[in-house]
Amino acid sequence: MSKFNEIIADEKPTLVDVYATWCGPCKAMAPQFEQAKETLGDAVTALKIDMDKNPAFASRYGIRSVPTLMLFKNGKVVWQQSGVIPANELVAQSKNFM
To answer: Does the keyword Transferase apply (predicted)?
Structure first.
């Protein structure tokens, strides 16, 4: 968790996909996340976090449903939304915080 805190403390936005392996919508979200990550390139740090392997993370940020997408900047959550989100919307949200 300390490495994660170090990453999100950066001024560069960090895009996080919180998912679970058993989650159907999470599987649908995966290619959208990958496409957004590819489009944004080095402008953001992109991470995937398995909620079942990181229950403390889910608890800390009050995540109750997956997929949940989050953007961090300077150590703070600047945007969060649950559900399958199109890649172009993820890119647009990320650009709001660059």
So the answer is: no
Confidence of residue 1 (pLDDT cuts 50, 70, 90): low
What is the set of domains in the chain, with CATH numbers? 2-95 (3.40.30.10)
Full DSSP string of the chain: -HHHHHHHTSSS-EEEEEE-TT-HHHHHHHHHHHHHHHHHGGGSEEEEEETTT-HHHHHHTT--SSSEEEEEETTEEEEEEES---HHHHHHHHHTT-
Point out the catalytic residue in the list 26, 29, 51, 91.
Answer: 26
Any catalytic annotation for residue 81?
no
Residue 23 is among the residues annotated as catalytic for this protein: yes
> Does the pLDDT value for residue 59 go beyond 90?
yes
